[in-house]
Specification:
The structure is a homodimer.
Chain A: E1 12-23, E2 26-34, E3 43-44, E4 47-49, H1 56-68, E5 74-81, E6 92-100, E7 114-121, H2 132-149, E8 160-161, H3 163-174, H4 180-189, E9 193-200, E10 208-213
Parallel strand pairs in A: 1-6
Antiparallel strand pairs in A: 1-2, 1-4, 2-3, 2-7, 5-6, 8-10, 9-10
The structure holds a DNA duplex.
DNA sequence: ACAAAAGTGTTGAGAGTACACCCATGC
DNA sequence: GCATGGGTGTACTCTCAACACTTTTGT
C-alpha cells in the first residue's frame, strides 16, 4: 500500500453471491435473468455494486436480502475476479461470495435489475453472463471442499434434522453414496450434533430421531498431512 | 450482477503482497516503510493501486517485481479486505496476495512510495499501517495451512535441496519438530520429489543427496473427512 | 579421534472401510 | 401383512506415530 496519490480512474466494484440450497434431492442455485444490457436476457449470479459506506460482507448480505429476503445465513467470501475484460461495459472487479440457505425459505423476488429470479438445479445450468460460469464452478468446488473438513452441511438443513436427511445432503453434494453406519458413527463421535428428544414421524416406517447442530461445537478438521 | 448504471463514487482498489522467505532458520516477510501520509514512517505490506488495464494477478506480480525485482514465483490470491474505514484517506479496497520466494534472490530496492524496504523475521514484527497486521496474520495462517495439504514448501527453497533442508523449512513454518524417518518416508512415497544424482558436501558429516521437485507431480492431498 | 550430519526399519495403536439384519410404523 | 425406512456392531486393513543406531566426512 500506496502513495498519497489517489488514481482518478477506478474500477467499479461489485459483489456477486452464489446461493445454494438443497431441495428434493438436488442442489440448486439462485440465478436472475438480466433485465439490462449487457447480456440482457441471460442468466446471472445475483449481485450488485458495493456502496461507499458498506463493507464487502455487508454488501453481500444486502444483496442476498434484496434478492431472496433472507438474512442470518452462512455467507463466506470466495474469491475476487478482476480480469479487465470480464465486463464489456468497462472495468468491473467483483468480489464473489457464497451463501448456504435452507430449503424452507421464502421464494425469491426479482429486484429492479432482474427480470426474473429462479432456482436452477446444479448439473443443468443455462448459459451465464460475464464470467459467471467460472465463478459458479469455483463456488461448487469450494462447497465440496468445505463439506469435507468443516461442519458446513448443517447450513443447508433446517434447525432440526434426521441423520438420514443429513446423509442425503452429503450424498447429493459430494455426488457419491455413503455408508449409513459409518456416517452415523463418525458424526456422533465428532460431537457436533445432539439429540433434540423429538422425532420425525408421518412417513412409512419407524420414527426418526431429530438432531440439532451443537452451536458450541468446534468443527474444523485437521487435514491429514502429506508434507509431512 | 448489476444494472446498466455505473456508480460514480467508486472505491479505490489496491493489491497488497505479503512476501515470505526462509533465511537462517527464520521465516521472514518483506515490509516497506511508508514515505507518505497516512501512517508516514510506519511499516506496511508492499502494494499499490491496480491499473485500469491489468488483472489483479498482474497487478500483484507487477508490485512484487517493483518491490523486489523478482518474477516467476509462487503467488496466490488470499482475501479481499474492504472495511470502509480501513484507510483514513477514503474508501480503499485491497486484494491481498501472498508470495513465496527463495532466499537466494536479489535484495529489495525501495520504490518511490517507500522510504525503505527490509526483511523482518516473523515472530517479531513492528507496528503496521492500516489493517496490515490482520492481513499478515491471515497470510501466515494460510501458509501453514497450505503447507499441510499441498506441496508448497518447495517454493521457499532453491531448485535443488536436501531432505534435511526441506524438513527444516517445514519445522520453521509449522513451528514444531518433525520426525526425520517419517518425514523422509512420506515425502518419498508421495512421489513429489526425485533425486538429482548430485550431492551437497562441504559440511562436516556425510554428503547429502540433492533432490528436486517433480514438476509433473500432482501434490494436492485429500483431507481426512470428518463429515462424514 | 571426535563431532556433526545422513541415512535407514519395525512395531503398536488408532482410524477407516466394508458389510447385513431386525424392528417399528403407515397403509 | 407388507413395504418403507430407522437403527445397530464387528472384523479387517491401512495409516500414523514413536523410536536408535551406524556410517561418512571435515576438522
Amino acid at each position: 500500500m500506496t502513495t498519497g496519490y489517489f488514481p482518478p480512474d477506478r474500477p467499479a466494484l461489485t459483489v456477486d453471491v452464489v446461493i445454494f440450497r438443497l431441495r428434493e434431492g438436488q442442489l440448486e442455485t439462485l440465478l436472475i435473468r438480466r433485465a439490462a444490457l449487457p447480456y440482457k436476457g441471460r442468466w446471472a449470479i445475483p449481485g450488485g455494486f458495493v456502496r461507499a459506506d458498506e463493507s464487502l460482507d455487508a454488501a453481500a448480505r444486502r444483496e442476498l436480502l434484496e434478492e431472496t429476503g433472507i438474512k442470518d445465513v452462512f455467507l463466506e467470501q470466495l474469491y475476487t475476479f478482476g480480469d479487465p475484460r470480464r465486463d464489456p461495459r468497462g472495468r468491473v472487479v467483483t468480489v464473489a461470495y457464497f451463501a448456504l440457505i435452507t430449503a424452507a425459505q421464502p421464494p425469491p423476488h426479482a429486484g429492479d435489475d432482474a427480470a426474473e429470479a429462479r432456482w436452477h438445479t446444479m448439473p443443468s445450468l443455462p448459459e451465464l453472463a460475464f464470467d459467471h460460469k467460472q465463478i459458479l464452478a469455483y463456488a461448487l468446488r469450494r462447497l465440496r471442499y468445505k463439506l469435507e473438513y468443516t461442519a458446513v452441511g448443517f447450513e443447508l438443513l433446517s434447525d432440526e434434522f434426521t441423520l438420514a436427511e443429513l446423509q442425503a445432503a452429503y450424498e447429493i453434494i459430494l455426488d457419491e453414496p455413503l455408508d449409513k453406519r459409518n456416517f452415523r458413527r463418525r458424526l456422533l463421535e465428532a460431537n457436533v450434533i445432539e439429540e433434540t428428544g423429538k422425532y420425525r414421524s408421518g412417513q412409512v416406517g419407524p420414527r426418526a430421531q431429530l438432531y440439532r447442530y451443537r452451536t458450541d461445537a468446534v468443527a474444523e478438521v485437521k487435514a491429514r498431512r502429506l508434507f509431512p
